[in-house]
Amino acid sequence: MTSSHITRQAAGCCLLAAIGLTGCAGPKPLYEWNGYQPQVYAHLKGQGKGPEEQILAMEEGVQKAAAKGAKLPPGYHAHLGLLYLNTGRTNQAVAALNQEKAQFPESTKYIDFLLNNMKKNGS
């Protein structure tokens, strides 16, 4: 074999590899954020939407994630639960907090703390 033949083979292999790699999709994101981070940031700065508007936006995010079969990030359900609590929707708050705990068992102590405080405060 000549060196030009080997060079053409190597170039052909590189071309095939490049074509194969461009056809691959990038890695799938771990979580479906749906604008959660900017919303929480605005809320914490006191510049966010009212609780009802936040709830609607977050519930829409839950539906979008479910439609994609994607997971929501840590804290999403907990934040939604606290919004429910602030608007007097105790049953929905408990359900959202328990969902956070089920999805992220490492949050159990914090979520149990919140749930116990709800009971103490008669919510």
From TrEMBL:
InterPro entries: UCP020555_TPR-like. Pfam families: DUF4810. This is DUF4810 domain-containing protein. It comes from Aquabacterium commune.
